[in-house]
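Ticket reopened. Same input as before:
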Amino acid sequence: MRVKQTILFCLALAAAASAGGAASGVQEDFAAANRKYEEGKFSEALPLYLEVGRRVSDWKVLYDIGNCYYKTGNYLSAKVYYLKARKLQPLEASIARNIAMTNRHFRDVVAVPEPDFVTRTVQLLESKLSLDALSVLLLLAILLLNLFLFLLLSRGRSRKRLYGLGFSLLLVSVVGAYHFSRTAALARSNVAVVWDADARLRSGPDEDNTELFKVNPGLEVRIIDRFRDWVQVAASEQIAGWIEKKRLVLI
Amino acid sequence: MKKTGSLALALFLAGLMAPAATPASGPPGADAEFHPSALPQGASPAAEDAAKASVTAEVNAEKIGLDDTLIYSLAFSNIENPVQPDLSHLDDFRVLQTSRSSEFQFRDGASTSSMRFIYYLMPTRTGRLALPAVSYSHQGREYRTQAFTIEVVKGSLFSPGAAAKATPAGPPSFFDDDFFNSPIRDPQPQKIDATLRAVLSRTSCLKGEQLLYRILLYTRNRIAAVNMLSGASFAGFWQEWFPVPQSISPVSENVNGVIYQVYEIRKAALFAGESGTLSIPSLQFELELADPQSAFFGAQAIRRSTQEVKVAVSEPPAAAAGLPVGQFSFALECPQEKADVNEIVTLRMKISGSGNAKAIIPPLVPSSDQALVYPAKITQESAYAPTALTGTLNAEIPVSFKQAGTVTFPPLEFRYFDPERRAVISLRSSPLQMQVSGEKLPAELSRTLPQSAILQKGEDIDFIKSGPLHDQSRPLHRRRWFPLLIIALFAANLLVLLKVTAWNRGIAASPRLRNRRILALALRRLDGVRHPEDIAPAMESYFSEKSGLGLAEVNDRRIAEVLAQKQVPKASIARFLFIKGQSELARFSQQKKSALEMEKDLHALRGLFREIDRKMK
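Engineering reply: fixed in the latest deploy. New output:
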């Protein structure tokens, strides 16, 4: 009975914590920006969205900012915001579609290969299982582990308690590792967009190195390595090189 | 080797029409290799059974360099319309290009026809490479050619020095002009008489003005095919090469008394992109001469180059800067005079002329308060007239109308520079007027959108997202309570562990604390007693824990012995045993002790417990 009460208490606590949405003022500003957009006043909607974006980080706000930039002809900024939204909501179809539409306005278009089955499955799981839900799951696993630990300490050893302890330990390890990888991936910026009109990829992290490619603004690149103010990026398997960080916008 | 086209010259009349040899110099503009001479008479192909079909293969060399090109010929004799075999599957050779030639002859009353496919193969590695046999089925019969083994060495064997060094006594190269003089193939020397000449329509022009660049082949030999080996791109020019026709009719030209057949083998329209003296470099061609000595009407290849041509390009007048150069016409039309509000009407603009149509930027139709102009769909077409390249630019401009009334599109202006008149010409379209009504047109009269308008309307980004916002920058695991909760859970278990290991097994198990714990437990049990019969079990439990005896061993006699040993006063022992006996009898007695009496017993017991505890430490 006491165990059930503890679990229910933790669930209620986690639910209350995750349900903590944005303040109502932000929500109203967001609605006002949406109304401006729907009226076709994209230039007026944009500063409202940007203000909401400063106060709350939600993929919907970033996506809508991208839409405003697109409608006002600033495709480079639109792509940057779409990619930021994609980072928070990886498998959202609208984001992918709008990125594809934005790419039509750039000179450099690199075909993105279809992800393999494992990657696709992981991405699908990530889209369904938000980071907060994963945190709650981790918390429950730790609670279960502690429960079996408590029973083992207070009531003595038994086969059921040992199995329960082993299972909960395994659960904590798996969920904890996945949680750690997700948070680490979210924390590091491994995607960037070429911003500078005169950007060139070089063979090494220095101006004296050989110029390999000229890349145009809007090209999405993957960051491979960093060295001082330079980053090594790859746009595809064939196109890779070093570029100054200031010529990129890190997502 | 750059992209080259193949040219089949069906009629081999050039050599036959040539008169007797007359030493002469070359035609105007010819290079130093031009050695006109008459074709030797009496040279005819070896006769073959006209009725007999055959497929044969030939290579131009059995040893080549890695940088050389192997010419592999497949000759189909007396096989009607043979399908060209595909050699792209070869691993050791890459097919650079193919060409074909055909021949039809009457001899001794019988006709023979042959089709020859020529493959230019580049080896992909060195070593002895196999060129497998080619199989061909025709009318149920299988034909199979000979297989070859080609030795491929590093470098090139066909460079003049290398060829002499590598194969001093080998067969003569097909690229050698003196092939027919080789004693191995033909003791009768034959003169190759072919040269190329580049002709430019003008030697001076304005920037952007069209020039016609032609490459003429002067020959008295029979030409099977022509392949351009050089790159077709000239620095400083934008060029449009005319398509190569399947057959070219020659014209006769008398050059210093010698009649040559002149073929216009390539033609391009050039538009100078910069001013100054521009140079059109020498272009190299491979000419395949029909070899009259070959049993299969085989072709022999020679190489010829055009001369370099220079052209003086001057800037157009300042007023013409940036304008198209040439002669153009300009028109803007609307297919209807009436439209409905929100209906899409397509305006059609057409600019055509002799200049570079691909460089023309059409004038824009401006949007207004009454009409919304969508991006235009622009198509360009080129026409290859004998004397110039002409082009047409068509623009379809979708327009929708916002309100009813008369909408007027002002005349548009298109300006270009005419190099012949040396003046900037301004063309204006007629003003267009549309009567726009507020009524919706019947469905059958409504017009479909042009492709550009469909793209504009149909393909757009997905709409904005709304709904409740969640601050994704502060996930649960970043909140302060999250790690604290995890730490608290483990800390609670750590306390339990400490209690079990340190307290229960260490501190609480010490003799002093053990006695106190037993007494405290016994007193707590007494506090929990509600019925007289519950007193005896509490007393037995206390005595069992205190003496270390099992509960089964505890009885009145044993209690009396132990307590006596511990020097507990006899009165206290008797009192202890009396209360215990009263409690045991209470289970079976109808008369219960009152609460007051029970409380008196409990009080006395507490005192007895403390006294026993002191004696039994």
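The two ends of chain A are 49 Å apart (CA to CA). Chain A has a mean pLDDT of 84. Please confirm and we'll close it.
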